[in-house]
Every structure is written in C-alpha cells, then in structure tokens.
Amino acid sequence: MTDQPGTDSPAPPPRRQSYGDRRKQRLDELAAASVDETPGVSLLVSAWRRLRRNPVFLLGAGITTTFVVLAVISPWLAPWDPAANPLIDKVRPQSNPVPGPEAGHPLGADNRGRDLLSRLLIGSQQTLLVGVMATLFGLAGGVALGTLAGALGGWVDSVVMRIVDVMLSIPSLLLAFSIAALFARPNQWTLIVAIATIQVPIFARMLRGSMLAQRVSDHVLAARALGVKPGAIVFRHMLPNALGPVIVQTTLVLAVAIIDAAALSFLGLGNPDDRQPEWGQMLGNSQQFINSYPHLAIYPAACIIVVALGFTLMGESLREALDPKSRR
User: What is the rounded average pLDDT of the residues 287-295?
Assistant: First the structure.
C-alpha cells in the first residue's frame, strides 16, 4: 500500500549514541565549564580558618589572654600592696583569725590581714613568670638534645635517647621534687630549674622524631644531591620544618608547668618569702584554715585550674588544626 500524496511519513527513530560519542560529549562539556581559579592557602592560613570557628579554641584563647593581661597589669590593678596588712587590727586569733569581705576588700584578707584580691592578682604574675621561664628553658634544652639526636644519628642518637628514657622513667613531679630539694635555699629560680629539667626530655623526644622524618624528605634529599653542607641542611632545611609540632606542644607543657610550680610551692620548695605571693604558695599557707575558711584555698586553686584549662584547650585545638590526620 502506497502513501497518499500530502501525508507526512513517520520520523525515523533517533540514533542511539555510542559510548565513544557520549564520552566525547562529556569531555566537551567539561572543557567548556568554568574552572575555579581560587588560589590555594598555606597550612597556617587553613589552620587559622578552622581555629576561628572552633569554640574550644576561642574559649581557651580567651582564658589565656585574660590571664596574661591580668598578670602584666596586676601591679597597677591590685588595690593594695600584697605585703601590706591593712586589716591586721581585725585579726583575732581566737574569734576571727581570717577577716571576711568588706568595703575595699571584696575577697577579705588572710590570717595576717593582707588583702586577698591583691595577692591573687600579684600571684598571677609570679605564676606566669615561673611557667613561661621554665617552659622556655625546657624548650631550649630539648631542642638542643633533639637536634643532636635527630641530625647526627648513630651513637649520638643512642646516648641522648637513653638519657631521655631514664629521665622519662622517673615520675615528673618526683624528679622535680628531687632537683628542687638539692638547693640549700629554695627560691623562685629553684622552681624554674626543676620544672625546666623535667620538660627537656619531652621536647627532645618529640623534636628527634620530627627530625628523623625530615631526614628522608624530598627537599633534604635534593639539598644533599646539590652538595649543600650538612650544617646548612640541618639548620636551614630540617630544623625549621621540624619545629611545628614542638611549638604546639609548648602550649600544653605550659599548663603542666603551672601545675607543677604550684605543687612544688605547696610543698614548700618555692619562694619562702610570702611577701611575693604565688598561687601554689597561697594554697600551702591556707592548710591550717581549710576546715573553717576554705575560701583561702578555693580562690588560688580555682585560678590554677582555670588557667591550666585555658592553655590545655588552646594547645589541643592547635594540635588538631595543624595535624592533617585530625582534620574533620
């Protein structure tokens, strides 16, 4: 049967595209699409973008910043001289050994009539000084030992790490107590030396591990192939790239240093002159009044706990932000 004139014939079915045609069409679409030319960012910039949205880091940084600022301006912020005793006439050994809060003395006074708020503020400066100095000395010693062990290797590495292992095998507080007890007259510097000594193996072990990882990195192998001197390789290529984890660890160790300094002062191995207050020293002096007047111990203990918590939160957040394995 033939088609009638003027009638439309049915359209042929569309030809099915082959795999090659579909692949070519997809490549053309990808080639025509706009390419995102957003520049990359460094590790520090990327870490900061995560940190500024991290409430844990912001809380820790806020506590730490407040502590440092108060410690710096405490001589001008304290309403009274910490060694003066303006409420000594209200101290009654039998009936009222510790004056309570009153106008001009919001936290009251201690058993010698000295303003408690002023002593807490000035004590923050002494606590910060001991913690920072001990951490810096411990960092310097750990960097020296870790650089020797990681850069030289061989028998130097074995000797250094065996010394580090022996130091780490002794409980840190016991080792610090033993070192501080060697001094005939305890003072603020005995605390710094004792706490710095127990921090040296922590930094040394961490830096040694980072240095060993840098020894087999591509940029170090390239520097050796180009004939760069070993000293330049260590101090210009290996050490700067190995210090990142150590710097982050410093914030965590600083919190431990503050706690250890308070513990040694509590045991009587700190500065015996209570005219220069320190939180651990104030905590130790409050033992005889802990049952009747617990606030004398609660205030310095709370300050130690909050400050240590601030440094710990900030340090943990920094470690997670800079560690690729911990990124979420």
Answer: 87
Number of domains in the chain: 1
Within 153-290, residue ranges assigned H as helices are: 154-169, 172-181, 188-215, 218-225, 230-233, 239-242, 244-266, 279-285
Q: Which residue has the higher pLDDT, 326 or 312?
A: 312
Is the residue at 288 inside a domain? yes
Of the candidates 123, 146, 45, 20, the residue with the CA atom closest to the CA atom of residue 77 = 123
pLDDT > 60? residue 213: yes
Q: What is the pLDDT of residues 105-133, one digit of tens each?
A: 889 888 888 999 999 999 999 888 999 99
| Crossing angle (nearest 10°) for helices 116-152 and 55-77 | 120
**Residue 102, in any domain of the structure:** no
Q: In whole angstroms, what is the distance from residue 123 CA to residue 70 CA?
A: 10
Q: Is residue 52 part of a domain?
A: no
Q: Say which DSSP state 38 is in.
A: P
Confidence class for position 136, pLDDT limits 50, 70, 90: very high
pLDDT beyond 80 at 286:
yes
Count of residues making up the chain: 328
d(CA 210, CA 322): 14
What b/e string do you get for 293-327 counting C-beta neighbours within 10 Å, with b at 16 or more?
A: bebbbebbbebbeebbebbbbbbbbbebbbeeeee
Residue 75 placed within a domain: no
Q: At what angle do helices 116-152 and 295-322 cross, to 10 degrees?
A: 30
The CATH number of whichever domain residue 212 belongs to comes to 1.10.3720.10
Residue 191's domain comprises 115-326
- The answer to whether 198 and 174 have CB atoms below 8 angstroms apart is no
- Residue 211 pLDDT exceeds 70: yes
